[in-house]
Amino acid sequence: MIEDDYANTIIPLPNVTSKILTKVIEYSKHHVEVLKAKDKTAKEDLKTFDAEFVKVDQSTLFNLMLVWIFLNLYLYLN
C-alpha cells in the first residue's frame, strides 16, 4: 500500500472499532516483518501466528473478515 502511494490517502473504514483496527495493524506488521526476514523459520512461525490469530470469538473474526474484504475491494477499485 505504501509503495502505491496509499500512505498519503485516507481510506475510510466505516464501523470499524479500535479493537479490530488494532488487530489488523498487528497482523499486517507481523507479516511485513516476516517478509523482510526472508528466513524459512520465520515463515514457519508465520503459519503458527496465523493459526493463533484467528482463535478469537466469532464476532471478532467476522469483523476482521469484513475489514479485509473492504480493504481488498477499496484497493482493487481505486
TrEMBL record:
Domain spans labelled SKP1 component POZ: 1-32
The entry's keywords: Membrane, Transmembrane, Transmembrane helix, Ubl conjugation pathway
Pfam families documented for this protein: Skp1_POZ
Transmembrane segments: 60-77
BP-aspect Gene Ontology terms: jasmonic acid mediated signaling pathway; ubiquitin-dependent protein catabolic process
Domain of life: Eukaryota
InterPro entries, alphabetized: SKP1 (IPR016897), SKP1-like (IPR001232), SKP1-like_dim_sf (IPR036296), SKP1/BTB/POZ_sf (IPR011333), Skp1_comp_POZ (IPR016073)
Pathway membership, UniProt: Protein modification; protein ubiquitination
Family: Belongs to the SKP1 family.
Name recorded for this polypeptide: SKP1 component POZ domain-containing protein
Organism whose genome encodes this protein: Solanum verrucosum
